[in-house]
Amino acid sequence: MREISLGLLASLFFAVTFVLNRSMELSGGSWLWSSSLRFLFMLPFLLLIVTIRNGTGPVFREIKEKPLPWLSWSIVAFVLFYAPLTFASGYSPGWLVAGTWQLTIIAGVLLAPFFFVKRQTMYDEQLIRQQIPVKSLLTSLIILVGVVLIQLPNAQSTDVRSFWLGVLPVVVAAFAYPLGNRKMMEICGGRLDPFQRVLGMTLMTIPIWLIFACYALVTVGVPSSGQVIQSLIVAISSGVIATTLFFMATDRVKDYQGKLAAVEATQSTELLFAIMGEMILLSLPLPGPIALVGIVAIVIGMSIHSMITAKEERKKTPVAA
Questions:
Q1: Is the pLDDT of residue 199 over 90?
Q2: Domain range summary for the chain, segments of one domain joined by +
Q3: How far apart are the C-alpha atoms of 170 and 91, rounded to whole Å?
Q4: Where is the signal peptide (predicted)?
């Protein structure tokens, strides 16, 4: 259950992303600046943390050994995750983006067969393909129903183009984040801690974010002071604190697909935090009845995930004589 607690805490800090990204869009800020500034601001904080812990050497050694896998999967995990999210914020409220983002829970479960785990046999060590955890998949479908319900009112009140521009990018992000995260765990093989892994992935994507920033500078000009400050808050809260907490949780359960799905399901609480944040900071009204039913379904699905994980842990814990 400790991993789920870490996931819940990470969700609280992740929710800042959805609220402030929407705030920046409403104030006229470009999504290009919102996405690039977050990672450019993250870099010095991560460098400081890892340097203090004397951990920069292993990061550069790991990158030097496998530069292409590091580059490609870092782009998937960070660029294909965050750029679509900030883009979608221009077309949907933060809570709606956060709700659609819960599809990442389904994605995490469905991606299981793409990964292998080492198992010691009587004669040697073998790589065994992971299986889709059926219980986790069925529970995740409850969350999927919730996502559909919260989208229904939005689909009825907006034009088709705006609706899909606010949904499709989030679907891409929902699959990219768990795929990139899991592939990077596989590449690192437990040799780097979460701070080191986030630093390495950030370093590998900095050239992409610089291209984003240069394009933004040419097309929309310099960001406002408000966008800079809010991007800094997002970088610290979501980029450094939340990402590290979430990576810590997933690292602990990376070889157990059911537990990993449960940790990824804790992200559903981002929706609740995002709703409360937007109601307080942006004075948005409470979602309508259908959307509220969807929110309840998402929370129920996440709770069932947690109960299944707790039950599995109790079965594996030896009973004292």
A1: yes
A2: 2-311
A3: 11
A4: none
